[in-house]
Write a structure and sequence with these properties.
alpha/beta, Glutamine Phosphoribosylpyrophosphate, subunit 1, domain 1, Rossmann fold, 3 domains, eight-stranded antiparallel β-sheet, seven-stranded antiparallel β-sheet, 19 helices, 27 strands, binds 5-amino-5-deoxy-1-O-phosphono-D-mannitol
Length: 609
């Protein structure tokens, strides 16, 4: 939520900031702003609406001069989207400007404190409190003033700060909110994520919580919260700029759907050697694995849906009880955790606040944390006992696609790895799943060839007001993801139900023309799936069925439309079945004229509670 970027160098800052913001816009897009130091004064421009409005206002940056600056693209929390609530927020003298991602929880008390001392506030934001408080403590040294403020503010924040009286530097601060530093020759950057700066440098530093950094043209110095210097290592980002560009596709979402075969190759192939799963640098010992008594999978949104599939597969492979819990619930539960409890945390961004909080709660109770994360160096990855990266490359569209499929593949690999250590899966089945995993990328390519069929089906159903997804077992878990994908980008009301629950209430919603997507890839329960299809059909529903190729002929007798996936091990069917559902959501949203990559009210990385 919210993207921040900062630049100090020898070139004009405003165009560089705008370019960085364009790459961060997926994080929030209701207003945007920049503040640039021209050596003497602070120039601020901000505007409600998409970044384009700001860019037009300042002639793509040409209207504002100066080589040091900060920028922000907002997902509103405190105060509605408006010019005045847009960041940067500026202190009353107009000398200090702040961009912020996160929430200052005690902002109301601090605001009262400042107002009692005669400070007027222009905006409703929590961020303005930070700018005013820095000014309150400022006595000619920005770093000192910022350090004082950090000891008074509570919450989650990454901040970029500039001061007109110290025009050669930027200050960056991080606590529980993502922030990286870019190291260049004659320039330095701060940014919410690598995509904003990869064009300029691949050398980055990952800030830790509580750290403050001073950025100048000549380099970056990081301090702890007591202003003691901290030595940081420089990491090299190994993906190409094209990975974060549309590359000829109309939307990032479609590009990322189409990237899934390659993403799966990268996630799976290096981890299978000579018919066996190999997890390099894995932090769990065989002895620990043998003592696991209970597994929790904790995540939000689509990552939670991966966990739902994971529960079925891990329990089948390991015979260890697995509970899947929403991170936002886990953190307020009283979970029964012992030293023999493994908590698997799943997160694309590695920054989701609820997931992070759940991780810390579980760790506090003595659990071991294994995370499955896409963004290298993210907070969740760094705070886990061990991490398995999905290596899917940058995912820009708000609706996740390739992260879901790679998370699923990594979870299956983990299941196999554990199963081998525990001896819980017969060798023959182990080999079948291994071979099926190796085939997944090319089968995914085959599935994606159904694009035209899906486009046609979308044209039949795009104007429905309500769409249900039904399925049992793994198909139910997959239906949840199909339904989320559809509703988040097309704004069609949609719900997923375990088919067996239909008769317990939901079936009353079925009427003439209601679209029901019947997920029926789990062949063991195919007959039951068919019965449910017949039931909803006889109450007037239109049925679109997702099934395996060998069951298509049976399903065709009843369904109005059919999508098939090739044969694979039953545990891996959600990995193939998800692609047509992603495409269906995409084409329906496209036909409804929705803003696919930036759906309303959403942001890619949810760093507030
Ligand atoms: O980065 P995370 O995997 O932790 O994000 C979790 C959810 O916010 C995310 O999956 C969200 O539900 C997506 N928009 C779904 O497409």
């Amino acid at each position: 939520m919210c993207g921040i970027v900062g630049f100090v160098g020898r070139e004009e800052a405003a165009p560089i900031l705008l370019d960085g913001l364009a790459r961060l816009e997926y994080r929030g897009y209701d207003s945007a702003g920049v503040a640039v130091l021209d050596g003497q004064k602070l120039r601020v421009a901000k505007a409600k609406g998409r970044l384009r409005v700001l860019a037009d206002m300042i002639q793509n940056g040409r209207a504002i001069h100066g080589t040091v600056g900060i920028g922000h693209t907002r997902w509103a929390t405190h105060g509605a989207p408006s010019d005045v609530n847009a960041h940067p927020q500026v202190s009353r003298s107009g000398k200090i400007a702040v961009v912020h991602n996160g929430i200052i929880e005690n902002y109301a008390q601090l605001k009262e404190f400042l107002m009692a001392r005669g400070v007027d506030f222009a905006s409703e934001t929590d961020t303005e409190v930070v700018a005013q408080l820095i000014e309150h403590f400022y006595q000619g040294n920005l770093l000192d003033a910022v350090a004082k403020v950090l000891h008074r503010i509570e919450g989650a924040y990454s901040l970029g700060i500039v001061c007109a009286d110290e025009p050669d530097q930027l200050i960056a601060v991080r606590k529980d909110s993502p922030l990286i530093l870019g190291v260049g020759d004659g320039f330095s950057f701060l940014a919410s994520d690598v995509t904003a700066i990869i064009k300029h440098t691949r050398d980055v530093m990952y800030m830790d919580d509580g750290e403050i950094a001073v950025l100048t043209c000549d380099g970056i110095q990081v301090y702890d919260s007591f202003l003691q210097p901290v030595e940081k290592t420089i990491a090299r980002v190994d993906w190409e700029i094209d990975a974060a560009e549309k590359g000829g596709y109309e939307h990032f979402m479609l590009k990322e759907i189409m990237e899934q075969p390659d993403a799966l190759r990268k996630a799976i192939f290096p981890r299978i050697r000579d018919g066996e799963v190999v997890l390099e640098d894995f932090g769990l010992t065989d002895e620990y694995i043998r003592q696991i008594e209970k597994i929790f999978i904790v995540a939000c949104g689509s990552s939670y849906h991966v966990g739902m599939v994971g529960k079925y597969n891990l329990e089948q492979m390991l015979r260890i009880p697995v509970d899947v819990v929403l991170a936002s619930e886990f953190r307020y539960m009283d979970p029964i955790v012992t030293e023999h409890t493994l908590v698997i945390v799943i997160s694309q961004s590695g920054e989701t606040l609820d997931t992070m909080a759940a991780l810390r709660a579980a760790k506090g109770l003595g659990a071991t944390i294994l995370s499955i994360v896409n963004v290298v160096g993210s907070s969740i990855a760094r705070e886990s006992d061990t991490v398995l990266y999905t290596w899917a490359g940058p995912e820009i569209a708000v609706a996740t696609t390739k992260a879901y499929s790679t998370q699923l593949a990594v979870l299956d690999l983990l299941g196999l790895y554990f199963a081998r250590k525990l001896g819980t899966l017969p060798e023959e089945r182990y080999q079948t799943v291994i071979q099926s995993l190796l085939l997944l990328p090319s089968q995914m390519e085959q599935v994606l060839e159904c694009q035209a069929n899906i486009q046609y089906l979308a044209s039949q159903y795009f104007n429905h007001d309500s769409i249900f997804f039904i399925g049992r077992n793994l198909d139910y878990a997959l239906g949840l993801e199909g339904s989320l994908k559809l509703k988040e980008i097309s704004y069609i009301h949609s719900e997923a139900y375990a088919s067996g629950e239909l008769k317990h209430g939901t079936i009353s919603l079925i009427e003439d023309g209601t679209l029901v997507v019947a997920v029926a890839t789990y062949n063991r329960l195919f007959d039951k799936a068919m019965s449910n299809v017949v039931e909803v059909k006889s109450r007037g529903a239109d049925v679109l069925a997702l099934t395996t190729e060998d069951k298509a002929a049976d399903m065709e007798k009843y369904a109005n439309g059919i999508i098939t996936i090739p044969e694979t091990d039953e545990m891996l069917r959600p990995s193939l079945g998800v692609a047509p559902l992603q495409l269906l959501a995409y084409y329906i949203a496209l036909m409804r004229g929705c803003d696919i990559d930036k759906p309303r009210n959403l942001a890619k990385s949810v760093t507030v509670e």
